[in-house]
What does this fold into?
Amino acid sequence: MELARVPLRRIAWRLFEGIDSTLLMIILSLSMLGLAALFSASYDNPARLINQLASLAVALTAMWIVAQVPPQTMMRFALPAYVIGLALLIAVALAGDVVNGARRWLHVGVTRFQPSEMMKLALPLMLAWYFHRNESSLRLGHFAVAGFLLAVPTALILRQPDLGTAALVGASGFFVIFFAGIGWKVIGALVALGAAAMPLAWGFLHDYQRRRVLTLLDPTQDPLGSGYHIIQSTIAVGSGGISGKGWLNGTQAHLEFIPERHTDFIFAVYSEEFGLIGNGVLLTLYALLVARGLMIAANAPTIFARLLAASVTLMFFTYAFVNMGMVSGILPVVGVPLPFLSYGGTALLTLFIGAGILMSVQRHRQLVQT
Amino acid sequence: MRTAELRNYERELHQFQLRIAIAGVVVLAAFGLLAARFFFLQVVQHEHYASKAEDNRISIVPLAPNRGLIVDRNGVVLTRNYSGYTLEIFPRRVASIERTIDEVAELIEIQPRDRAKFRKLLAESRNAESLPIRTRLNDEEVAKFAANRYRFGGAVEIKARLFRQYPFDDVASHVIGYMGRINQEDQARLEEEGVDANYRGTDFIGKSGIEASYQHELHGTTGFEQVEIDAAGRGIRTLSRTPSRPGNNIGLTLDLRLQQVAENAFGERRVAAVALEPSTGAVLAFVSKPGFDPNQFVDGIDPHYWSELNTSLDRPLYNRAIAGVYPPGSTFKPFMALAALELGKRTPRSTINDPGYFVFGDRRFRDSKPGGHGVVDLFKSIVVSSDTYYYMLANDMGIDAIAGYMKHFGFGARTGIDLQGEVTGVLPSPEWKMKRFRRPEQQKWYPGETISIGIGQGYNSYTPIQLAQAVSSIANGCTVYRPRLVAYVDNPRTGERRHFEPEIVRRLPAKPENVEFVKRAMAGVNKEGTGARAFAGAQYTSGGKTGTAQVIAIKQNEKYDESKVSERHRDHSWFIVFAPVESPKIALAVLVENGGFGARTAAPIARTMLDYYLLGKLPEGMSLPTPEDEVEEERESD
It folds into this structure.
């Protein structure tokens, strides 16, 4: 007995050695809230909950594995991951499957796969590695190259078209460049250029994307068409009130007034049933997640680790902000899931790998110090 | 070198941490924005969104009440409700109505007339949610459609509705009336009356007859069901239910069998007849022919039948008994006689000499009998219907006295019967003429015009029901009752019965002996005068008066039709009668348009009606028709 217990404990200790418990608690709390909301939204299809639990198990395993990999090893994957991701994006553009009018999917054996999802991590990895390599001699030229590395995959995803993912990929790359220390003047110039290019960009938008933007400005213009999502989700959120209608009691969700209630609009289900208090809990958890991530980034020993950790952290934030903003009607409808809550294995995997990266950075902060 | 590198490293770290701090502030600001948005939606605007969510969720479904039934005085059911299946199109859910009908026609037989009906309904209906393309589906059709229902995505559905059915078809159609869809005009009226909420589940409304005048009694109270619905509009569960309350049943004073005897006796003529109970004013029979088949209106009238009804020269939708005005002819004489006695212009004993004409100024008014009736007293003047006597009488009385007394009978005024569309007719007087005409020379009353008033011609024009009311007032002694068709209203839930008491309008200012005198004279008409032939061998006493009203010209709104004009130029035939003389049970006015002499056409029909009503005797070869059971799935409604 005595003998048996000691190795068990040691094994458990070894297992959790690389895991940041604070981060894990936050992520698991978010996942639990997500399962609760998903249970409510899946009254018509309980199999979804099982699927989500299976995805969670896979994602947790992936997170654990990534947490064991030291950042130096990750650096080695940066360039190959980026190149493969880019190649796959090009392959999608040439021979992808069209679903709902967008060419996003690539057939891999029996399953389909979205290369753009992979780019969400591959791009910051690549950029962080690039800045790390040129640490001692950073010049404006390097930022220009970084901008180019960012623009190519973003443009490819935008062309699919997938505005939400393009925004997330672009943002993840931008965060790296920002934390790498790009000058404020350059940022100011870019912002000015962007503003000037807005009318031009409008011309490049697809009709449905323009409609979404117009709908945001006045959802009542087309209440049964493009405005329907926003109107119904806003009603769900607003009718939740302070304390919510109670778990499983959301009428908007249960009577199918909320479209895509398992995935991108799961926040409407959550908010209707748990109200302002529930929203406060959720915002607090996300704020803690971001705070923990930024803390890890601030304490990271290398440029690579810092940039990667900070970028991943702000990606979590971007997901959360864009999704909740869209559901509550202050941002246009784009396909961005609510991190750790929305149904869907791919998104969960990306997010947990991101968390694994943060844990790896946190665990290996001592080892590289010289 | 190493120091510089270290310093460089520190500067970089410092810069990085500054940017981390900036990012933290941005994140907090963004979450603050979200929190503010949540506060706005969930606290400030909570009420608004909560009610929107409720509106989303709850649909109020009206439950239409069962319409009350109409029965005759013996409890014979004149209207029924049956539930039938209809196939309905939801116009707002389809892109092209014609294409949808084509698709439906592949499954269910759709006649061109169904399409025509549907188009008419679509044009007339008030914003209807759904309209029927087919009614009275049989079980096979219902099953066939149900199997293919999914193809229409909720734009075409089968509905079970209650329909009105009239088992006696066109019998008493002008009394019962017909039902039609609520159109914009009806809707506006319902809103004005403030009862539109009670009609939310109702599609049909009474358009004429009792169905219209007792619409609110018959309709009942609409119930409501609160149903929770999903986003597709499917009902999930019933939250609360207020059942509808059926409409009241109406008992008529009408005797359907008497009505059938009368309608049968009239054949295909254009006629009006009103039989009243002299002691109450209750309407025993009310005929206006031609009539119409109210069943044809039930599920949207076929446009062909509708145009036929509206363009026919016989005007079947026109209620002759209350809306038709005719000079009363000689039926006016008994009332003139009573006026003369009451005003002291004549006594029963005074006589005149009737040479066959009456001269006024340079005009000669001819008697219908060339050579005249010789010495005529008041009694004989009625029995033989002497025109000369009444030319003189009218001249002696003057128009003011005539108009002044005749209005007590109700001539020239609505009787107030409980039907819509009654007209006043004209009781001529200088005041009336002043109002009626515009040119001064036309406005003046000429004494010569008074002469023909005395024999019921000239400007005199009254409705058959006014004549019936007047003869009934003579029959009962001197009481003018308001004619009414409804005896009672039954509340089917409480079993409570509300009787309508006889309503006295006024009493004639007449001495009983004078009324008795007129009644005796009218009895003389049927014994030895102009009505004697029609009433030969009657087993009861009766008092009558024939009348023949000149038709001056064809009416303006009728089409000129060479083949019918000569027939339509013939005189109208009148007969008024009451029986038995001692204690009258029935008073009757009969008018046959272009029927010629009253004694020849109107009087025999009156005899047939009295024989049936007083003796139960059916005309030879006639058996009373029974209700036609053409609707198989008909169901009595309670």
Q: What stands out?
A: Residues 21-68+219-365 of chain A form one domain.
